[in-house]
TrEMBL record:
It comes from the Bacteria. It is a multi-pass membrane protein. Keywords: Cell membrane, Membrane, Transmembrane, Transmembrane helix. This is ABC3 transporter permease C-terminal domain-containing protein. The keyword Transmembrane helix applies.
Length: 232
């Protein structure tokens, strides 16, 4: 039995507890040992000799095997051969189990990055639209700036700086909100995830901010060129 469950209910090793099986029959089981919380096993473990009489179709999704000499490719192959090389049975070591769980996490991250790419495209269109409105609506003001000596090069620079400010502001707001949501979700899940620790990827955040500034410069090319063509 899981140690935390036993402690929460005041149960100790050697104590007998009443149980009810899936077929409706009742009985008693003795707590033989307790173990630390483990995501790979259930809260209560009982021998198959006890459960089989009460389960017409037992379902065994996993079997844990300890090999002599520890994990090795030869031992894994011997296990596969002993099972008749059944294609329905998959032998995995600790690293394979980690890779399987990591694969699911990587798939979710790929989906998140795909959504991020879509959001980035929408953000670029939004920046272009904002700059276009700020260019074509105040044409008289821009013409006045040209009349008092602002040349085309400085007009382009002004539009580019405006685009960079808009992009960086949006990126900073997104990073702040994302970090807060990540912290809030972590606080909710940290009790159920042993060894949880929040780590901020500062290098990736810096790269994203640089990309945001680059996107601002690129999206400002067409509005800046159109603005520079305005006459007094």
């Amino acid at each position: 039995m899981e140690r935390e469950t036993a402690a929460k209910n005041g149960w100790r090793t050697g104590e007998s507890l009443p149980v009810k099986y899936d077929d409706g029959e009742t009985g008693t089981l003795t707590i033989g040992a307790t173990y630390e919380e483990n995501d790979l096993v259930s809260t209560v473990i009982a021998p198959l000799s006890v459960l089989d009489p009460h389960d017409a179709k037992p379902y065994i999704p996993q079997i844990f095997v300890k090999m002599d000499g520890g994990e090795s490719a030869a031992g894994e192959q011997a296990l596969v051969d002993a099972l008749g090389q059944n294609p329905a049975v998959k032998a995995m070591d600790k690293q394979d189990i980690r890779d399987e769980f990591g694969g699911m996490i990587n798939m979710m991250l790929s989906i998140m990055y795909g959504l991020l790419a879509m959001a980035l495209i929408i953000a670029v269109l939004g920046v272009v639209n904002t700059l276009a409105m700020s260019v074509f609506e105040p044409q008289q003001e821009i013409g006045m700036l040209r009349a008092i000596g602002l040349d085309r090069r400085r007009v382009k620079r002004m539009i580019r700086l405006e685009a960079v400010v808009i992009s960086l502001f949006g990126a900073l707001v997104g990073v702040a909100m994302g970090s807060f949501l990540g912290w809030a979700i972590g606080q909710i899940l940290k009790d159920s995830v042993p060894g949880y620790a929040m780590v901020m990827p500062w290098d990736r955040i810096g790269i994203f901010l640089l990309l945001a500034a680059l996107v601002g410069v690129l999206t400002a090319m067409w509005p800046a060129r159109s603005t520079a063509k305005l006459t007094c």
